Amino acid sequence: MGWTLAATSFGFVVVQLDVTIVNVALPEIGASLGAGVTGLQWIVNAYTLAFAALLMMGGSFGDRFGSRRVFIVGILLFGLASLACSVAPSIEILIAARGAQGIGAALILPTSLSLLSHASAGDSVARAHAIGWWSAIGGVVSAAGPVVGGALTSSLGWRSIFFVNLPICALGLWAARRHVGETVRVITGRLDIGGQLLAMLALFVFTHSVIEAGARGWTHWTVLAGLALTMGAVAAFVRNESRVPAPMIPLGLFRSKAFSASVVLGVIMNITFYGSIFVLSLYFQHAKGYTPTETGFALLPFIVIMVANLASARLAKRFSPRTPVIAGFLISALGFALLHGIDDATPYLRILPSLLLLAIGAGIGTPALTSSILGSVEPSRSATASAIFSAARQVGSAIGVALFGALVVGLPAQVAAGAGFSFDLSAFLRLAGVLLAVLCL
Question: Which domains does the chain have, with CATH numbers?
Answer without folding.
Answer: 2-179+248-440 (1.20.1250.20)
